[in-house]
Specification:
Two copies of one chain form a homodimer.
Chain A lengths: L16 H29 L3 H12 L4 E3 H8 L3 H13 L3 E5 L7 E5 L1 H21 L6 H22 L2
Antiparallel strand pairs in A: 1-3, 2-3
Helix pairs in contact in A: 1-5, 2-5
Chain A binds a DNA duplex (30 and 30 nucleotides) through helix 4.
Chain lengths: 163, 163
DNA sequence: ACCTGCCGATTGACACGTCAATTCCATGGA
DNA sequence: TCCATGGAATTGACGTGTCAATCGGCAGGT
């Protein structure tokens, strides 16, 4: 619209109407998808996606416990976000926190039996939902393409962050 | 893992490790992408993605105003979500609400001059961000594939909702 | 006239995320 | 000794989203 000339669009132009339509479809659909998966998880297991990520990391950790900052790094969350989330999970009895003996001001996060239970019971329905809502929706080619698209987007995002 | 037999995976099995890896990459990357676009929009225009969607709809509406429920339907939001969001936008002077003369209990949402300004100034940088972070990251084939993947996911989601 | 039900919209309670303080403690100068 | 500097984690304020409850007015039936 800014220019009628059909010049080869080299990075600096605005998106075309088609590109914009794809953007909107893509972003709205992925949002709907993750919201649907999250709704299923909630219904099946009374867990949020955040809960699941934390419980998964702790389940795989040595002794089912981990330093708070290591946990944050492992799952790629900001420390403050994790702190808030752990407070909510602790209120519900899924995890516990205790002072780390070796590191001053350090905090150990550990899985409670209730948390381990909740995670165990959630796994199967959650994976089933992923298959039903995501994997089964796509052809093998599309699934492969989805992986490549994610990789390309991530690489591009990373490159932008470092400029 | 549940069964070693390589039976053709027909909808009822859990995802394979590869499928699961693609799922995680895909969902995490799209989340990072929309968060990055939202950060840009905020930095460039002091608007959230929600603000943008509402302002876009109002800008295109007859007389730059719309019934609250029509607006909600148009952008696909729950009424309560829109109500909360409009309250925040009204506080900031981007929109105004007034009683609808024809419909009892109905509410007209209308764009203020400040809201129209904010939207106008946000458009260019926002579209540029979409191009830089999304369109430019993908090859034309990948872009096409992204559109098809979105369509397939959406169709599948819809089918699930109606069962 | 009264009650019941519905419809449009708002409200309240709560979960979640981000950003900017803030706390606590240890350590390394001066 | 005293201070400042820094790392680990928490806290507070606030925007955002969902769900359930509520409000206010207008039917329609009795």
């Amino acid at each position: 619209m800014t220019s009628a000339t059909p010049e080869r669009r080299r990075g600096r132009q605005l998106p075309t109407a088609d590109e914009l339509r794809i953007w909107r479809d893509f972003i709205e659909t992925t949002e709907a998808l993750s919201s649907q998966v999250s709704t299923r998880l909630q219904a099946d297991s009374a867990l949020s996606p955040g809960d699941y990520v934390v419980l998964l990391a702790l389940s795989e950790a040595q002794d089912r416990q981990m330093r708070s900052s290591a946990l944050a790094a492992h799952i790629g969350w900001e420390r403050s976000r994790l702190s808030h989330h752990l407070a909510r999970m602790e209120r519900r009895g899924l995890i516990r926190r205790q002072d780390c003996p070796t590191v001053p001001r350090g905090s150990e996060v550990l899985l409670t039996p209730a948390g381990a239970d909740a995670f165990r019971n959630s796994t199967f329905p959650h994976l089933r939902a992923i298959r039903e809502l995501f994997v089964d929706a796509l052809t093998p080619d599309q699934l492969r393409a989805a992986g490549e698209i994610a990789a390309a987007l991530r690489a591009h995002l990373g490159a932008w962050g470092e400029d």
